[in-house]
């Protein structure tokens, strides 16, 4: 039954977007192919380069301020240090744009759907999914980054290993950096974790329950907008990851209420995100398909 269901899911992908994502039916020569290759190589190089620059900047910020250094001593125009601390977020944004273009050029097949705002978007992409192992590896990277920028500083602070004068500019900048990138890495970990859950469960649940879906019904259209187009459950998981990522700060602040509150909010949001992800098959559309709203 599961095999039959997966065949039906692939058929539905053909109806929704022509052919499944992959190399079948693609041109192998011509200007369009070269443009795709240039975008793929350029986008991924920009993505990797910007990510490495951003990561290196965060490492420098933490080690420099942990040693009592003030950012204004290196960048005199940045008196408060905010601009320098936010620089890695700009690199993260540039990295996301690069990977978006590069990966969609490598793994995606773009098409115009002719949809309307009431029922669907006007553009769709059929993606060739990455493997579960690679997906899990990305989750491991995100969790490791969170441990390094949040857990390690809190543990060092609790053990008295950090030698920063309390209330100094260096201390304020250090903990601001920890907070900002604890949120970002926690958010990424939450989103990647929920995306992995969908990858592991979506197709089987769709195959088992597709007879319950009525195309064009209020329920199907709602799930199409909420989950298939907006991927809203992944966004909720990101908010959950951000809250969970902040929870260790309760130790630094000597505030159990802060830590328990962040942990509770994050857990509740993640439970909601998981429940939504396990029901996202109600859109009736392949999880490998990405659709715009405009």
Description:
The structure is a single chain. The chain is mainly α and 294 residues long. Helix content is 69%, strand content 4%. The chain has a 3-stranded antiparallel β-sheet with strand order 1-2-3. The longest helix has 41 residues, at 169-209.
List the helices and strands and how they pair.
Blueprint lengths: L1 H16 L13 H36 L4 H4 L7 H26 E5 L10 E5 L4 H27 L10 H41 L8 H12 L2 H15 L2 H4 L3 H22 L11 E3 L3
Antiparallel strand pairs: 1-2, 2-3
Helix pairs in contact: 1-6, 2-4, 2-6, 5-6, 6-8, 6-10, 8-10
Q: Can you tell me the overall shape? A: globular
Helix fraction by DSSP (H/I, runs of at least 4): 55-70%
Please provide the count of β strands.
Answer: 3
- Radius of gyration (Å): 22 Å
pLDDT < 50 stretches:
1-27
- Termini separation: 36 Å
* H and E order: HHHHEEHHHHHHE
Decide which structural class fits the backbone.
mainly alpha
Mean pLDDT: 88
Task: Please count the helical segments.
Answer: 10
Beta-strand residue fraction:
under 5%
**Strand line-up across the major sheet:** 1-2-3
């Amino acid at each position: 039954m599961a095999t039959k269901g997966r065949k039906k899911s692939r058929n539905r992908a053909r109806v929704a977007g022509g052919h499944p994502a992959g190399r079948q039916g693609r041109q192998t020569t011509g200007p369009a192919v070269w443009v795709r290759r240039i975008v793929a190589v350029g986008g991924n190089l920009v993505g990797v380069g910007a990510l490495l620059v951003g990561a290196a900047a965060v490492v420098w910020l933490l080690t420099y301020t942990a040693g009592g250094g003030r950012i204004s001593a290196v960048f005199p125009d940045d008196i408060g240090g905010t601009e320098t601390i936010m620089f890695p977020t700009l690199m993260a944004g540039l990295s996301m744009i690069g990977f978006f273009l590069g990966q969609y050029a490598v793994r995606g097949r773009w098409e115009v759907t002719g949809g309307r705002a009431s029922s669907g978007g006007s553009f769709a992409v059929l993606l060739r999914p990455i493997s579960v192992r690679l997906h899990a590896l990305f989750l491991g990277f995100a969790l490791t980054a969170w441990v390094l920028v949040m857990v390690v500083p809190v543990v060092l602070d609790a053990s008295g290993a950090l030698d920063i004068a309390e209330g100094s500019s260096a201390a304020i900048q250090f903990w601001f950096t920890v907070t900002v990138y604890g949120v970002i890495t926690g958010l990424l970990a939450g989103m990647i974790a929920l995306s992995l859950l969908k990858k592991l469960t979506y197709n089987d649940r769709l195959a088992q329950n597709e007879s319950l879906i009525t195309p064009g019904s209020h329920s199907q259209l709602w799930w199409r907008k909420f989950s298939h187009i907006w991927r809203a459950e992944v966004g909720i998981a990101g908010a959950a990851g951000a809250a969970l990522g902040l929870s260790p700060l309760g130790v630094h602040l000597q505030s159990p209420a802060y830590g328990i509150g962040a942990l509770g909010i994050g857990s509740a949001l993640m439970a909601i995100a998981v429940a939504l992800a396990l029901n996202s098959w109600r859109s009736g559309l392949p999880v490998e398909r990405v659709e715009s709203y405009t």
